[in-house]
Amino acid sequence: MPARTPLDANAILAATEEVLRRHGAAKATVVDVARALGVSHAAVYKHFASKEALREAVTRRWLDRNRDTLAVIAADSAVPPVQRLRTWLHAVLAVKQAKVREDPELFAAYGILAAAHSGVATDHVADLLGQLTAILADGAADGSFRTGDAEATARVVFHATAKFHHLAHAAEWQNPGIGTELDEVCSLLLEGLHAPTSP
Known about the structure:
Layout (H helix, E strand, L loop, with lengths): L8 H15 L6 H8 L3 H5 L5 H14 L2 H9 L5 H22 L1 H12 L3 H24 L7 H11 L17 H16 L6
């Protein structure tokens, strides 16, 4: 009989993703995860203290899969900040659209955590705001954006584009014209951020 793979956090998280996909966020339990792994639920609790902790960990892992893609866009100093801001906002929308379309059960789990004011949701928003702040700071530094406080401006841009990333608007993300709408909002924001040239 082959030796069983040691139970670790990654194996539990992978199994949890499958259980969430099969049963949905509302019905998936630690017992279901343990059964899928062929272990007792106590073995799962050795790695995650509660159902909430397990759900937070699996959602964080799921969200982090696209983090690097967005971070690379935000940090790409070879691309002018004006173009980078537009590209990044469209990339955020594309990531959100893909998550709803390809992994609706895990997206639902994230929705439950966000509604509960989970640290996962808070950290995710903070990460996005940090990337956005970096783009705006670069634009302020090279004179293409007019802002004395990149962090405060990032919050305004983030709120102004909520329709394209906040889960309350998820049903709208598959609308055929959503990309055009975002482009129009980007143009308006960029016009407002534009630093006038000196006479």
